[in-house]
Design a protein that fits this description.
Blueprint lengths: L8 H4 L2 H10 L2 E4 L7 E4 L2 H8 L4 E2 L2 H4 L11 H4 L9 H10 L4 H20 L6 E3 H6 L1 H11 L6 H10 L6 H24 L5 H9 L7 H31 L2 H9 L4 H11 L9 E3 L3 E3 L2 E3 L4 E4 L1 H4 L34 H18 E6 L21 E6 L5
Parallel strand pairs: 2-8
Antiparallel strand pairs: 1-2, 3-5, 4-10, 5-8, 6-7, 9-10
């Protein structure tokens, strides 16, 4: 079967292709890279099952063992907590979970709100501005860097390296960025080891020297993962959410009139256009049957979170944005032991940013036709590369 995800139109709107595949089968065999076949999961029930099935491993080191590769991806990026199984994954995740609890995120909310206001203060009082570069990119970068203790002067470089890690079709760019990011974090960890502080990274360094026995490689890998995952997905989630609202004026007007409804609307916005289009790599440790399809051992399985969130068997009329829908069961953050540990932080950033935007600006609309928007050139995450909008400040905002 031809892989429809290779169609250039897929980046702009993958959902018709997902729907076509799902109508044939919720689990579709696809040709794999290097001749290795794989399976793409587009059904909701099957995606949820796959995400929670321990027979599907994420240990890429095992899968690729013995295979020659011309890639030069740094091990700290190639073998993160995401690319591990329990009990190693359980041990590493436990060390970072406390930083993203509801209480911990609540303590960050004043900082998030202050940064949001400072960024919005830099926007013109009227005219065109890019929501992605003006808010969706810098806000999550600043927040996760603040949490980890990355110096302010270094944050622009972090954002550039992170963006290059998602440069689909450019392995050389990705590999170079992985080394730059890992080398930077190795240096920062050494600096903090000599001059301890109170950041999350400092606490992870202390854990390395305590009972948890984090190795140097594990510490660098965790730091890189938290930096990248801590802002890339939120950036795309913000862009997707605002675009969805701009394309559904009634929903936009409703939230502008009732900004306190923004928190309740987040799940539907996340379901409607998932920031993570496909979950990270999995493969079968043994033969499994998924959605009536038999999958042999040692086969890659790609779970399309965006497709699952548009499955009409779980979400009726899935291509409609319905703010009254109960969408709490969406899979935008994954499911099971690998569910995004930073989900509470991401939702807090989305809520604060969207509420501030809707409060400050009236009559927001796209500055260019939606079909002219440029999308990120990667099939892992999904989001507009830029989102030019026209808006006028409300009288209250000055």
């Amino acid at each position: 079967m031809t892989d429809p995800t290779q169609d250039p139109r897929f980046l702009q709107d993958p959902y018709p292709a997902y729907a076509a595949m799902r109508s044939i089968s919720p689990v579709t065999p696809l040709p794999g890279s290097g001749g290795r076949p794989g399976h793409l999961v587009t059904g909701y029930a099957e995606a949820r099952e796959a995400l929670g099935d321990a027979r599907l491993s994420k240990d890429t080191a095992v899968f690729f063992a013995g295979q020659e590769s011309r890639r030069r991806l740094h091990p700290a990026v190639a073998h993160t907590m995401l690319a591990s199984d329990p009990p190693q994954h359980t041990r590493l995740r436990k060390l970072v979970t406390k930083a993203f609890t509801t209480g911990a995120v609540a303590r960050l909310r004043p900082f998030i709100a202050r940064v949001t206001d400072e960024l919005l203060d830099q926007w013109p009082a009227g005219g065109t501005f890019d929501f992605v570069s003006g808010l969706a990119v810098p806000l999550p970068v600043i927040v996760i860097c603040e949490l980890l203790g990355v110096p302010e002067a270094d944050r622009p470089e972090i954002q550039r390296w992170s963006a290059r890690l998602f440069a689909a079709g450019e392995p050389g760019v990705i590999d170079t960025a992985s080394h730059a990011m890992a080398d930077y974090m190795t240096g920062l960890i050494a600096t903090k080891g000599r001059n301890p502080g109170g950041s999350l990274l400092d606490r992870l360094i202390a854990a390395r020297d305590g009972d948890d026995q984090l190795s140097e490689a594990e510490l660098v890998s965790l730091a890189v993962l938290l930096l990248v995952a801590g802002h890339e997905t939120t950036t795309n989630a913000l862009g997707n959410a605002l675009l969805a609202l701009l394309q559904h004026p009634a929903a936009l007007d409703r939230l502008r009139a009732e900004p306190d409804d923004v928190p309740a609307a987040l799940d539907e916005l996340l379901r409607f256009d998932s920031a993570v289009s496909t979950a990270t790599f999995r493969f079968t440790k043994e033969a499994v049957t998924l959605g009536g399809t038999g999958i042999p051992a040692g086969v890659p399985v790609v779970v399309a979170l965006g497709a699952a969130n548009r499955d009409p068997a779980r979400f009726p009329a899935p291509d409609q944005l319905d703010l009254d829908r109960n969408a709490a069961a969406h899979l935008a953050f994954g499911h099971g032991v690998h569910r995004c540990v930073g989900a509470p932080l991401a939702k807090a950033e989305m809520e604060i940013a969207l509420r501030a935007l809707l409060t400050r600006y009236a009559g927001i609309r796209l500055a260019i036709p939606a079909d002219r928007l440029e999308w990120r050139h990667t099939r892992l995450v999904r989001g507009p590369a830029s989102l030019p909008v026209l808006a006028q400040r409300t009288a209250e905002a000055g």
